[in-house]
Amino acid sequence: MHELGITENIMDIALAKAKEAQASKISRINLVVGELSGFVSDCIEFYFEFLSKDTIAQGAKLYFEPVPLQLRCRSCSMVFHPQDTLWSCPECQSQSVEVVGGRELYIESLEVE
Amino acid sequence: MKRIEVVQNILEANESIAAQNQRLLDKHRVFAINIMSAPGAGKTSLILQTIAKLKDRLRIGVIEGDVASTLDAEKVKDKAAAVIQITTRNMSESCSLIANMVDYALKSLPLEELDLLLIENVGNLICPSEFALGEHKRVVISSLPEGDDKPFKYPMIFADADAVIINKIDLLPHVDFDILAFRRAVKGLNPKAEFFEVSCKTGVGIEAWCSWLLNEVPTSAHKTINEGG
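Predict the joint structure of the above. Result:
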């Protein structure tokens, strides 16, 4: 739904960084995407193909490194990946939890020529 | 082949515009609230009730965000000190307000004549949680007909809320909504959230919500009261 805007941001960042490095072609963009970040990678790829036309990023591969959801229990401090929809702590069953991983959305690196 | 380390947040552009919006609001001593909910939960009704209650204490501006139509802006038009409608249908992000839409709206609002800005986000429990707008507080409305399981289905919007409003409380005898279970689920994600049980139809609970809001607005923003003596 808002992947077009996200893809525009990815393009802006990648083109700026590639320019800084005086690269003539971007061959790969490595992205880190948390499980909770709510973006659809197919959708980003679709827009990317369209937006990158006639730029040095045309034909670049997008690689999405997923980051699983990680919670920290506020009662016993256990860090875990939830196994149920209630997000209860497997150690003490508390449902008071803090999200410590899975909201990431960033460009990790570029591969350029 | 060369590798360039980037490590740059893709939403950074939005976040920096949001920070800029907040600086502009602070400069004009305007306190901004981002109101988020599913479609039909009562964002516009809450805004109308809030204006009715606080209009003698604060000068209130409204930003209406919708995919299409100006229906909400028309409802609010005669009540608020100023209203701007943003329709997102033809924008890259149609499912949520984002910081540069608010930046545009702020340029069209008479900020020096406002104390409080109520920003009605697009009806959606997913995307608005990703985009800061420059608001000072985030408010999420859940209404009884939606069911009490929403904190489990859309956790992030509840995890970041400063206040959670349970609206349509007058429907309690008619729907299966376990208020305690709902509050427990939100508290689990967000121990600091304040709760208000209201009915925008009957007016129940609006008083408590408005006193909280009035208390949150820094006294420096009470320009009407200060300047009016």
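The longest strand of chain B covers residues 2-9.
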